[in-house]
Amino acid sequence: MRAAIVDYNAGNLRSVETAVRRVGYEFQVVSRPESLKDADKLVFPGVGDAAAAMAVLERTGLAQALREYYSGGRPMLGICIGAQIVLDRSEENNASCLGLIPGVARRLPGGEGRKVPHIGWNQVRYRDDHWLFKGIPQDKSFYFVHSYYPDPAEPTARLCRTEYGVPFASGIERENLIAVQFHPEKSGEFGLRVLANFLAH
Amino acid sequence: MLEKRIVVCLDVRDGKTTKGVKFKGNVDIGDPVEMARRYYEDGVDELVFYDITASAERRGIMREVVERVAAEIFIPFCVGGGIGSVEDMRAMLLAGAEKVSVNTHAVLHPEIIDAGARVFGNQCIVLGVDALRDNEMPSGYRVVIHGGRTHTERDLLQWVLEAENRGAGEVVLNSIDADGTQDGYELTCTRMVSEAVNVPVVASGGAGTPEHLVAVLGEGKADAALIASMVHFGGYTVPQIKRALAAAGVPVREHVKP
To answer: Is the ipTM value over 0.85, yes or no?
Structure first.
């Protein structure tokens, strides 16, 4: 298997790299569109601003390469901002996104005692028997750092749920694409298990 | 529900974990990587490493420590101490830290917060601040720097709000009055700051018993509690503290044995 981690200058990949290595997989870090053609499993991480991330992806041609990769039916895992920009658009600076999963990234409402960004460990309840969470009990905590959340149009795209003022889809999926709002690479042993499950699937 | 975080702090000098009381006299207490792994296995939610190495030329040692930690633990960790430029930040983030914290340097050159936040994002930039009780200041607390040795003319609350505005994504609030005493956190100060800012506040200084954490995470409204002595010297373990917090109704992450 040829696993690849996409580097598009949206934050630090180091922790994703060490986590993937830890669960026993070799990978390449790719930043050129043509390199995606050789990958048969893709991890698509990133933090920061959706509009800025999309601008880089469009300018470098990675946006088109990601769309083609997805159409090719090969497995793809988005992380954090990678779970927002796979949607049609984001409320963050009204960014137009990749459009791989119908839906919008919306701003967390915050409110009494709930600071935004949502930073820290929060529980994840996943759709029963989903392979991504194999070996992980329900309602375990994962590490989040974000101000926007994925709101997919179709209920079938909701893979798991977390509550922070509103219940939101902390993971989404469509066909060969899985995307999680939390950081599996920073979520301890259960986070590593999510990465291992994706890479082994 | 978002859980309250337990953060263990390791002061690192010349590559060894050290612990001092009120910034006077330090004793080496172990290898930071070994200790980090033990706390990770014990279910700590986050770690902070402060580089208190005196000489700039020995800073490379800290980068190696951070790289080794990053290869072994898979929870967020922050590095502070001696960070005086965007390049220093980049070195620590590339070595594998999730966040960097600035304290004295940010007071002297506040624009480092803006610069760091612009390049790496607010979530990477932590403001460390040392507060000293002082009734002459508007908020009742004065900002002190150089580990408490130098008084500034800055008011705590004004400074924290300015730093948030400049792009600090989290505040580690250390009470100089309480630091190293193990008599409990400064609750009034913590609550005041936590209610004033919209970024998470990590309470620091004074932890001695699990009840102190219950108080600062409840009454003190902190989002996270930083501890050091109470776990380094074997008085308590992280699972013990978490059990006590859970029993008191504080939402904490269950212990997960790797």
So the answer is: yes
